[in-house]
Each structure stands twice: as C-alpha cells, then as structure tokens.
Amino acid sequence: MGKLFRVAFLLGLLSVSIPLLSEQIERRNESRPMIRSPYELAAVRDWYAAVGTWMVTGEWQSIAAPSLGLDATWYLSALRDSYPRAEIELLSVEASGATLSALVSIDPGHAAHELFSAAEFPQPWIAAETFDVESGRIVDYSIDGPIPPLMISHPQVAITSPHTDGRLLIGRLTFSPGSDAYVSIPGPAIVSVESGVVDVLGDGVSVLSRAGADAIGTSPGAKIPLRPGEAVQVQQSRVVISHVRDELATVLVATFASPSMQLATHENRHPAYATVHEALSREGSVAVGAGVTAETVSSIALSGDTGGLRLQAGWIVLAPGSQGRIESGVSELVLVQSAGTVRLNSTQGHGVVVSNADSGLSIAWVAFVSI
C-alpha cells in the first residue's frame, strides 16, 4: 500500500512539474536569440562573397537577396562606380534576436574618376551593416555607416551645334504601370533611370552607362533593360525608351534643344502627343505617349557659341552630414532631388561643393554644362 502511494505521489508530482518545466523552457527560448542556426551566419558570409563578385561583374543576379531596398541599391551602385577596385572584407558578425550585425573593412583602392571627390573621408574605413535573416535567407539589408560621398557618373556629351539660341532642358519622364508607349529622345542628350526599369532600343550609336563598367555601344535592334542609376548617352542620333511593366518608372533627361535644329515632326509612334522637346519647353506635366508624361525641371538658356561646351550628368549619393565636390568648370548646373535633400553649398574655383541636408541618405541627379 505504501509503495502504491509513493508511485501515485510521484506521478502526481510529475504531472505538475512537466508543464512547469515546459513553460520555463519556452521562456528561456523566448529570451534566447532567434538566430541559432549556422545557416544564418553562412547567409551573411555568402552575401559578402556575392557582393565581391558583383563588384567585379556588375551582375545583380550574383547578390542573393529578395529585395535590396532603395538605399542599398544606390549605395552599392555608387560604391562600385566610385571605387570599382574596392575590396570588402568581413571582420565580424554578431547576432541579436532576428538581426545580424556585421562589421566590414572597405579598402576603396583608386577612385574611378576625378569628377567627384570626398572631403576628408578616411580610407580605408570600417562600416557597420545590418541583416534580417529568416530560415537562412536575407530578407532585409541596411547600411548603418559610415558612407563616403559617392557618385555614379555618366559619359559626357559634346554640344557641337554652334547655335546662339540653344537651351539646356532638364525633365522627368513618368511611365505609368502597364504603359506600352515608346518615347524617342533626340541627341545630344543623357537619359538616366530614377526608379523602376525601362528598356532602351539599341541603335548601334547610343552608349550605355552602368555603375563601375566601361561605357558600351548598343546593338541595333536589341532591347536592353536599364535600372536605377544606369544611363544612355545620345550624341547625334536618337534613343527610343519603352516600358512594359506593372510598376511605375521614372526617367530623368538632360538634353539640348534649339528652334534652329531640324527636329522630326513626331519623335514617337504616337503622333497625337507632344514630342519630348516640345513637352520640356512647356510648363507642367505634358503627355508624350499613352501613359507617359514629361515634366520640366529646369530650362536654361545657353548664350553664345555652344560648340565648345560639354553636357555632363550623374547621381550623387550622400550620407547624413557628408559633403563632396564636383571637380569641373561648371557653367550651368541643375540638381534634381530624388531622395532626401542634397544642398548646393558653394562654388570654389572650378568646382562645386554639395552636402546632405537631411537626416537620412540623400540622392540627387546633377546635370551641368561644363566649359
């Protein structure tokens, strides 16, 4: 009888203790970091290996992440264009909850161009970056800094027409989701993607510009996708831009126009709409195709002989509190704000100083005529 009592007592004790023990285990698990698998750490290491490959090849497919986000896309593109020989070394990774924090060393090597310079930024530098990882996959990536002043530069275009009545036209084309319009833009011009993806119809003459890569000519008849930060340079021909996607796309245009220039009556396949030059010579938003509008950002008169001028453009990417300098003899300059606020501080000698006037990453397209 005593033995049966002890067995019954033990069973009752277990029935109470097991739920309490399970509850304590659950509480401990809740307090422990959610990242426990080596696959999460491997995902971050693989990311940096892929970024290293991308710095060499420029192929976005090499970066294994579902979505980079606006800031990360611009940062990586501008880093590759400013410092195409940069070496990125992963120093450490620490886990906190579902977040992984990484410290990386970035040795920029030599700058790719002398058009834009950073003011007193240490080289090399240590950067902090953050990842959100789920089931061994990176679902979010952000740069905590520091970030040097960066620029994505486009090939310059010579303004060779000796007109005294020419104007520099800066505008934004907006392609609505699902638009199937083709818009033609005559040269000399620089066309760059601000958001979304558009297609350029190759003509064998216009030149493509991608971050950190040499400018290449377009193959006749080829349809080439352009992503944010990428551009096409048009000298004496014209370029055709199309958009057949379910997302909004915006494109920035810097072009030279003159009443003396012999322009085709219709630049696109929609003769009922205004040409791009006509639209950018007016105020407000003007339809230039089915689901496509053009809006003037700036129109500047270029007085005198324009045969010795150059049209240049590029994207400036600035972290909070940072500033850079455009190293060029600037005659006329236009800043087109895209994210945050890039401020034009001053003109020093033959250069222009710009800074970030916002609390986050600021991005602006700059188009200017240089002597």
Structure in words:
By secondary structure, the chain is an alpha+beta fold. It folds into two domains: 38-148, Nuclear Transport Factor 2, Chain: A, CATH 3.10.450.50; 153-370, Sandwich (Jelly Rolls). The chain has four helices and 25 strands. The chain has helices at residues 2-31, 38-57, 70-82, 276-280; strands at 87-96, 99-107, 116-118, 125-134, 137-145, 150-153, 157-159, 166-175, 182-186, 189-195, 198-201, 207-209, 216-217, 223-226, 231-234, 238-242, 249-257, 285-289, 292-302, 309-318, 323-327, 330-339, 342-348, 351-356, 362-370. A hairpin with a 2-residue loop joins strand 1 and strand 2 (99-107).
Kindly summarize this structure in a few lines.
With 371 residues, this protein is an alpha+beta fold. The protein has 4 helices and 25 strands. Strand 12 (207-209) and strand 13 form a beta hairpin.
Summarize the SSE layout with pairings.
Elements: H1 2-31, H2 38-57, H3 70-82, E1 87-96, E2 99-107, E3 116-118, E4 125-134, E5 137-145, E6 150-153, E7 157-159, E8 166-175, E9 182-186, E10 189-195, E11 198-201, E12 207-209, E13 216-217, E14 223-226, E15 231-234, E16 238-242, E17 249-257, H4 276-280, E18 285-289, E19 292-302, E20 309-318, E21 323-327, E22 330-339, E23 342-348, E24 351-356, E25 362-370
Antiparallel strand pairs: 1-2, 2-4, 3-21, 4-5, 6-20, 7-20, 8-17, 8-19, 9-16, 10-15, 10-17, 11-14, 11-16, 12-13, 12-15, 18-19, 20-25, 21-24, 22-25, 23-24
